[in-house]
Amino acid sequence: MENTVLKIDSFSAYFGDNKILKEVDLTVPRNVVAALMGPSGCGKTTLIRCVNRMHELIPGATVSGKMTLIDEDIYAMQPIVLRRKVGMVFQKPNPFPTMSIYENVIAGYKLNGIRVAKSELDSIVERSLRRSALWDEVKDTLHRKGTFLSGGQQQRLCIARALAMNPEILLLDEPTSALDPKSTSQIEELFVELKRNVTMLLVTHNIAQAARVSDLTAFIYLGELVEFGPTEKMFTVPKDKRTEEYLTGKFG
Amino acid sequence: MGGHLRGRLVKDLAFKGIVCLFAFLSLLPLFLILYYITKNGIAVIDWDFLFHLPRPIGETGGGVANAIVGTLMLIVLSSVISIPCGITAGIYLSENKEGKLSNTIRLSVIVLQGTPSIVIGIIAYLWIVAPLKTFSALSGGVALSIMMLPVIVKTTEETLKLIPYHLKEASLALGVPYYKTILKVILPSGLSGILTGILLSVARITGETAPLLFTAFGNQFMNINIFKPIDSLPYRIFYYAMSPYPEWHSFAWGASFILVVLTLALNLIARGISAKWKTRF
């Protein structure tokens, strides 16, 4: 399928002998928000950390199965090449404390030693900050440290940093769980705006958030992909009994 | 009942008094040292003392310029050797919290820190002085660098351990290779702590005499050749204080004053750096 960004085939992940993910199959088309939801410890974070191969940084972590980004086998690529094509935003905002807002946005270029003309960098910074809806708030303080921003602003700075690399897919690991309700809704609006040109895989433990922002939802339970489909359909007529129980708050 | 309460209050007061007294007593030596050194030393300090060489016995005047230059050279030499080794070892320890090598390094660092400085001087003698058949600034620098090493390794490790793991993840997730993540993200974030450690270790070795006795040895003349014996402030103090001449005694006070000011300044700068440049996460 030409429109597929990420294809996951019978993928399993382990910590030592412990099987965290069990033969997951998932296909994410272009320019959607796909939410992964499930109770804590179900493996949803492990799944997205396998997409940019951060999972394997933990000693004893192994995987089996196949993942494809566009046409390339993720596990045949060099991790550093792969990670430039896959952006990631973490639970806790993590701008680089020694860098200014400007430097944070272009950190992916600077740290990787990718040479870009100054004028080009300026436009990357402006474009990325506009896309993450932060430009108007920081355009006059671009050379202040990023850590002086509020939590929500820091998180949008991290989104800008990821967007600056023009990733094929943006991985969002519970990006609003450390933020207040106002910043959360700003960032949710941002995701809806962004999906016109970016594909996003959003991990959330917040059912309402999945309902608000995602087009597709996957429900993961005990390492198993229970159900995957259009969000609206899953929330109104879940196919699996476990999905229904989770959505109605019987567990999780 | 009233008597009991009174007794307890008196005990309470007495306890507070004793705590204050001993706290004050522990400060006393430092202030006495500063007082005597300033009183006896500051009068000697003048242009001649700072910028002239020692004169032979019998002549008055002269200074300790060679010792000041020597001490600065020894600091530079030992820093050049110990800073790269210490920081890399600290990085290794903070990156590899478990493991045989890490535990061995940690234990060695503790043992090294407790090794008497005179023993380190003997080692430097065996390594450098004996093969080159001459006392030298280099051998003094090596001895002092061994003394600096534990402080730098430990402060680097402790500083880097405090840097949140999510910063490293942020860098790796951008496709930044591991070595660049360490050099460009982790090290700069811990810069103030590492600098503090370096300054404290320099402060520690500035006044060391024992390891210099049979390495740098001492020198009446100005020398900037690292393969020749070199003078240093602690050595000059030792030499002058042992002499029978009153003028040399006052020179020893003067040199002590410079040394104490230098050490104090290093400590204050270190405190300033750790407070002001602290990275906000």
If you had to describe this structure to a student in words, what would you say it looks like?
The complex is a heterodimer of chains A (252) and B (281). In chain A, 36% of the residues lie in helices and 27% in strands. With 252 residues, chain A is α/β, with parallel strands linked by helices. Chain A has a single domain, classed as Rossmann fold. In chain A, the strands form two sheets. Chain A has a six-stranded mixed sheet with strand order 6-7-8-3-9-10, with helices on both faces. A four-stranded antiparallel sheet of chain A has the order 2-1-4-5, with helices on one face. The radius of gyration of chain A is 18 Å and the shape is globular. Chain B is an all-alpha fold and 281 residues long. Chain B has a single domain, classed as MetI-like (MetI-like fold). Chain B has eleven helices and no strands. The radius of gyration of chain B is 24 Å and the shape is globular. The relative contact order of chain B is 0.14. At the A-B interface, helix 2, strand 6, helix 4 and helix 7 of A face helix 7 and helix 8 of B.
Counted beta strands of chain A: 10
- Widest β-sheet, arrangement of strands of chain A: 6-7-8-3-9-10
Multimer state = heterodimer
Total discrete domains of chain B? 1
Question: Radius of gyration of chain B, rounded?
Answer: 24 Å
> What is the arithmetic mean of pLDDT of chain B?
92
Q: What is CATH's topology name of chain B?
A: MetI-like fold
- Rounded Rg of chain A: 18 Å
Strand content bin of chain B: under 5%
Number of helices of chain B: 11
Q: Report the biggest beta sheet of chain B as strand number plus sense, adding barrel if it closes.
A: none
Low-confidence stretches of chain B: none
Approximate helicity band of chain B: over 70%
